[in-house]
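Page 37, continued from 36.
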């Protein structure tokens, strides 16, 4: 009887359903998109700078790729994180932006793999490497920004988002200060009696 009850109990417990993706409003979708992709843009800026430094170093006879490798590892990680942040299982994007966001996500997944590959190359091969899909990535990003009604220029879009986040952070302490300044309500007669 005990074994049968145990077996029946195990069979009747259904796994918890996966949580539904968060449905994003148009403004929330723009913010979520920028929160995902702006760190990738910053990582690319670092990788581009490291590549230029390597180009100069190679002309001087040096071939140390450590800085470039670290920067490309940063691109790979930022791309992985961004692709996860754009995952349709996490968010339901506004209908006009769904296909464009999905295309950006595909390019991020491809960029992650390429960045990890190039990070392992020697100096000469890294400098000679031709990035595959750069035009597709730029087109997908432009389409997503247009569909989400964000600025055309990715740097301007990320700068605006950074300013918005800074304002929100600056307002956080003010809200907390204002909440602590509110007078404590005086206890009513019934509350006084309960305390005494």
């Amino acid at each position: 009887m005990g074994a049968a009850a145990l077996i029946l109990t195990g069979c009747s417990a259904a796994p918890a359903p996966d949580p539904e993706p968060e449905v994003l409003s148009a403004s929330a979708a723009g913010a979520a998109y920028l929160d995902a992709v702006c760190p990738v843009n910053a990582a690319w800026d670092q990788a581009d700078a490291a590549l230029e430094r390597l180009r100069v170093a190679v002309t001087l006879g040096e071939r140390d790729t450590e800085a470039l490798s670290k920067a490309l590892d940063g691109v790979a990680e930022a791309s992985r994180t961004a692709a996860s942040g754009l995952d349709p299982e996490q968010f339901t994007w506004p209908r006009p932006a769904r296909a464009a966001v999905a295309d950006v996500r595909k390019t991020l997944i491809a960029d992650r793999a390429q960045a990890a590959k190039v990070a392992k190359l020697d100096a000469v091969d890294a400098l000679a490497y031709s990035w595959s899909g750069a035009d597709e990535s730029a087109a997908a990003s432009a389409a997503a920004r247009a569909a989400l009604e964000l600025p055309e220029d990715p740097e301007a879009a990320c700068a605006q988002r950074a300013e918005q986040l800074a304002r929100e952070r600056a307002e956080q302490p003010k809200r907390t200060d204002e909440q602590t300044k509110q007078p404590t309500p005086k206890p009513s007669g019934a509350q006084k009696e309960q305390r005494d």
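Residues 20-164 form one domain. Flag for discussion at group meeting. Confidence is low (pLDDT under 50) at residues 1-12, 188-196.
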